[in-house]
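[Solved] Which block belongs to which protein?

Original post:
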Amino acid sequence: MQLNAEMIEKIELLAELMKRSPERVVDEALDLYLKVEREKQLEDELNAHKKETDLTYNEFWDDLDFDD
């Protein structure tokens, strides 16, 4: 994997400001990015599941039979 010179410069500048190594800055940024992306994926999966299981009021009650 390669980064362009501009990105490397940005990482090094940020690392200097944060008093951390450039490797640590990249690791933390990737960890945060992957966490956010995973949360988005889980939210999308949950929304898809809700669409499969959501019934309107009428859909729910119309399918019930109350014969005694």
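(Second protein starts here: sequence line, then its structure tokens.)
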Amino acid sequence: MFAAFDDHDPDSVMAEMAEGMTFDDPLQGEALTRDEFYEVCVGFFHVFPDARWDTERLLTDRDDAVAVQGTFRGTFEEPFHGMAPTGESVALPTVSLFTVSDDGITAWRDYWDLVTFREQLGVA
């Protein structure tokens, strides 16, 4: 699935998502629906045209839960959540927790530090 992100292919990303899935991260006020998440993906690839995730660790403890530790990397090239682009690059440590079923990913929750993100982007 992260390969689809690295390829900037929102349709392939969504192919891994179950109907009714939710997404949440530190920038969202509340969990996004599947359709809202698709729109976030499309926009995100414009904001960070070289976006990629480097997976460092993959953990599972049950049949329906996966945790991925990694680093998001990208260059801030377009306006994003009220922030003007700076051209700065980010290398942001992340943890993503997934709940999965036979239908695909049903919930995705990202954990990362917003202060570090803003500092690296030059908007702190």
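Accepted answer:
You had them paired correctly. Confirming on the second one: The first strand starts at residue 17 and ends at 24.
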